[in-house]
Amino acid sequence: MTSKQIILVYLILINIITFIMYGIDKLKAKHGKWRIPESTLLGLAVIGGSIGAWLGMRTWHHKTMHKKFKYGIPLILMLQVVLVLMTSCKTKQSIEQSEAAIEQQLVSGHSPNVFLVMYDANVGKEPLEKAIKKYKCEVVYEYNMLNCLALKKPKKKSLEEAIAYFKTVEGVVSVDYDNTIRLNDPVKPKSKVK
C-alpha cells in the first residue's frame, strides 16, 4: 500500500468510527446513561473525523445546539480541507526542483528514467519479458521493426543499475540510454564518414 492509500483508509475508518460514536452518544443521552465526553467527540473530529462528526450531528440530530459543536465542527472541517489543499499543491521549491531535473536531462542528453533494450529476434523477447517482470520495469514503447523496447526503470533503482542488469539478460544485444534531442539545438554529427 502506498502512503496515500494508507491515509485514505485511515480517514475512512476514523470518519466511520466518529459517525458511530455520535450515534452511540445520542442513544445514551436518550436513555440517561453514561455519556461519551465532549472532548472525545471533538478530539475525533480533530484527528481526521470531522466529516463523520458533521454527518453524525446531522443524522442523529446530536449536539446541534451546542456552540462548540455547531460552529467548531464546521470550522475544523474547513481547516482540514484547507490543509489538504495546501499540502497537495506544488510548492515553488518543488517546481524549481522539477525544472532543475528537466534542465539536467537536457544537459545530460538522455532521459533520466527510460532506457532502450535491443534483443535478438532468434532468441525472442520471452527472456527479456521475464526480466522486465522480475526487475519491475515498465514497458514504455515497443519498436517492433527494430526488436527494441523502451523501458522505464523502477523508482528505487538508478538508470545505471537498470542498464547493467539488462545487459546480462539472455538474448539482449544492447542496452543504451534513451537519448533526447532538443529541437532548438543545431544538428551535430557524432562522427565523420571517410
Compact description:
The protein has helices at about 5-30, 40-60, 65-70, 70-90, 90-110, 125-135, 160-165, and strands at about 110-120, 140-145, 150, 170-180. The protein is α+β, with helices and mostly antiparallel strands. The longest helix has 28 residues, at about 5-30.
Write the layout of secondary structure elements.
Blueprint: H1 3-30, H2 38-60, H3 67-70, H4 72-88, H5 92-108, E1 110-119, H6 126-135, E2 138-143, E3 148-152, H7 159-167, E4 172-179
Antiparallel strand pairs: 1-3, 1-4, 2-3
Q: What would you say this structure looks like, in words?
A:
By secondary structure, this protein is of the alpha+beta class. It contains seven helices and four strands. It is elongated and about 85 Å long. It starts with a helix and ends in a 15-residue tail after the last strand. 17% of the residues are buried. The model has no long low-confidence stretch (mean pLDDT 86).
Shape: elongated
- The helical percent reads 55-70%
Domains (count) = 2
Rg over CA atoms, rounded to whole Å, is 29 Å
Order of helices and strands: HHHHHEHEEHE
Structural class call reads alpha+beta
The number of helical elements comes to 7
- Quaternary organisation of the protein chains: single chain
Q: Compute the average pLDDT.
A: 86
Number of DSSP E strands? 4
Distance between the termini: 58 Å
Q: Report the sheet-strand fraction.
A: 5-15%
Spans of 5+ residues with little confidence (pLDDT < 50)?
Answer: none
Largest sheet features: 4 strands, antiparallel
Strand order of the largest sheet: 2-3-1-4
